[in-house]
Amino acid sequence: MKRISEVGALLKKIYRRYSSDLITSLQSKGFIDLRPSFLEILSYVSETDSPSIKEIGHACGLKKQTMTSHLNELEKRGYIKRTTGLRDKREQIVVFTDYGEKFKIALLDAIDDLETLYLKSLGDVELDRIVRTLNNFHFKINEIDKKQKSLI
Length: 152
What we know:
The protein is mainly alpha-helical. It has 6 helices and 2 strands; from the N terminus they run ααααββαα. It has helices at 3-28, 36-47, 53-60, 64-76, 98-122, 124-151; strands at 80-84, 92-96. Helix 1 (3-28) packs across helix 5 (98-122) and helix 2 (36-47) packs across helix 3. The longest helix is centred in the C-terminal third of the chain and has 28 residues, at 124-151.
């Protein structure tokens, strides 16, 4: 197996495990209607003050149709609401409802719990090294993409 294929497979396995652990923790806190595909959107909204739909889609790498479907579901389930932007009335932004704010607190607690659990296994130095390595890898593959686009 090629190394890059192995990297992709390992990242996918790690992400699935992390998502599963996070959902299990959130379910124990009463949020039983979540799917892994919602976590990335909800995490981004938790970290960003009133992001636009376009920003969320770009950050999460989702196509417009998928994004709309997920936002419709999250709105129906009471996590978020869409409203018009303050600067640009044509832009829709996403904010948490009261229920969504409760979710955000539970999400941050669950992430803290997972970090504590993972740190017990890896330790600070190893986890920092992994984060730096992945950030570097992400930066470099994005640079390759930018160079390829500039050649077109």
